[in-house]
Amino acid sequence: MKYIYVYVYALLLMPFFCEAIVTSPGPNRITRNIIQDKKGNIWIAAFDGIFRYDGKSFTNITSKVSSARFFSVAEDSKGNFWFGSIGAGVYYYDARLNDGVGQGKSFQNFTTKDGLLNNDVGSIYEDRKGNLWFGVFGGVSCYDGKSFRNYIINGDAMNEDRTGKTFADRPPYEVTTITQDKTGKFWFATRGNTFVYDARLPDGQGKTFTVFSHAGKPFKNVRSIMQDKKGNTWLGGADGLWRYDGSVFTNFTQQFVGHITEDKKGNIWTSSERDKSNIWANPGSDNARAWALSRYDGKSLSDKKPTVTELENKPMVFGILEANDGSIWFGALDGVYRYDGKTVTDFKSKDEQK
Predict the structure, then answer these.
(1) What is the pLDDT of residue 120?
(2) Minimum mean pLDDT among 38-42, 125-129, 195-199, 312-316: which range?
(3) Maximum distance among all alpha carbons in the chain?
């Protein structure tokens, strides 16, 4: 009878997958996104898996679940995790399910077959109502816990699609960042136009998606949007680093900016291009160090020439996180790094450092 019970219980867990924990060094491939969860663990989305760092060691959470390249990771308000992949859709991970009891943890995979607009998921965001937004190629998918509601980019416009259309291949205009501002409006950064979406307007009452522009020119190829503590909106992309306070635009650099974050002291951290002529150089050469992790001093942001410090040069710099202890984590082509205010630490194994 005991064995029948175990068999029935296993069936009840379908279509979930059991996790096989693999303790490992940190990622050693492209690292795109880094977050810190409510318990203080660091979560890393990289091309060799989703890694969790507990302050002592790394665990590759997805090594036995998927070989996909991971681009994004997010923790929702319920303590669940969402992993965005390239080609395999999004994975839901319930870290609370029988945690530590020996019965495993659970995954569920959502793809275009379930209504996801596209299986390349580059960004994830939870709104104030608890809906999950997934930025993909071709638009965004909003998941309310039951079904997906999709919004498609069509040239210079963006609108809701109610036909059930999905994209098996990569259409143009990847949605790179999703955020909700203090007024409740959503901002969508894409490789095309940047859109502001007023979800507060009821259906049928005018156009809710607008193209965000400056001096009649749309912001295009924006990779990161952030609202700082003062309510200013920061945009980083092909046109450099911009701040918008609701009426005035300020440009800080015209070099390409990939990621933006604000630390507890009000400093702005960016990953930015240094020399466009070298950006696609051989990553192994000295000339390839064309990107920098930079810090804009928060106290000087109102000056004509704010104080900017370049702290680390890499062939490419991706996601940036300020951890609870004040350290700065950032991703690169070859893994993840931590800056403690004095030194930069990598997390490669000893074999890889030889």
Answers:
(1) 98
(2) 312-316
(3) 77
Average predicted confidence (pLDDT) for the chain = 86
Q: What is the mean pLDDT of residues 319-342?
A: 95
Which residue pairs from 104-112 have beta carbons closer than 8 angstroms and sit at least 24 positions apart in sequence? Answer: 104/18, 104/19, 105/18, 105/19, 106/13, 106/16, 106/17, 106/18, 106/19, 107/16, 107/17, 107/19, 107/65, 108/15, 108/16, 108/17, 109/15, 109/17, 109/66, 110/143, 110/148, 112/166, 112/167, 112/168
Residue with more model confidence, 100 or 110 = 110
CA distance 121 to 141: 10
The CATH number of 18-353 is which of 2.130.10.10, 3.40.50.300, 3.30.559.10, 2.60.40.1180?
A: 2.130.10.10
119 contacts 89 by C-beta, under 8 angstroms: yes
What stretch of H or E contains 352? helix 350-353
Distance between CA atoms of residues 294 and 272, nearest Å: 7
